[in-house]
Predict the structure.
Amino acid sequence: DAKTTQPNSMESNEEEPVHLPCNHSTISGTDYIHWYRQLPSQGPEYVIHGLTSNVNNRMASLAIAEDRKSSTLILHRATLRDAAVYYCILRGYGGSQGNLIFGKGTKLSVKP
Amino acid sequence: DSGVTQTPKHLITATGQRVTLRCSPRSGDLSVYWYQQSLDQGLQFLIQYYNGEERAKGNILERFSAQQFPDLHSELNLSSLELGDSALYFCASRSGTAYTDTQYFGPGTRLTVL
């Protein structure tokens, strides 16, 4: 399976934007980039996914590099509730097709 | 609330015992996935069922088994429990098409083996 690399941890201040990077240099043309997050003491939850174009939803934005070898999850105004572990996952012929394959993710801390 | 329910929330048992964890997927979802989350291994896929049939297996031990019933709820059976089986067990159900699907996770069952 194609692999993703994320920083172990990041810190942010409340109400500031947060950019969470993910490298996936071996991504194949049919792999979708998915992001999930896991809040403390909860199950993972879906955040966003994309293939080539940048994507926005109510939770976040996903910026995908032109060569697709990296992507960035953008939280526009971090809140204390956004403190979680964020996972970048590839899904497709090069990634996982059914089950999700979780790496270590990035632990985001948000300071008031 | 993801719409996926899991019972019980907590389970404390002794080594050598057998337990059953239960999961009900979101209404309309046919797939159920089971994952284990331990401190040293992170989140790992165990097994998937689709409409009552086993579809995929991950790092599931032979001591563990699962099934999905006609009403689509699923049970994960863990037997001959060892200390190392202590972990959070999540189930998830899935909606959408391949590669663009979304998995919805339940709140998990925390298993403690003493």
Q: What stands out?
A: The mean pLDDT of chain B is 94. The longest strand of chain B covers residues 42-50.
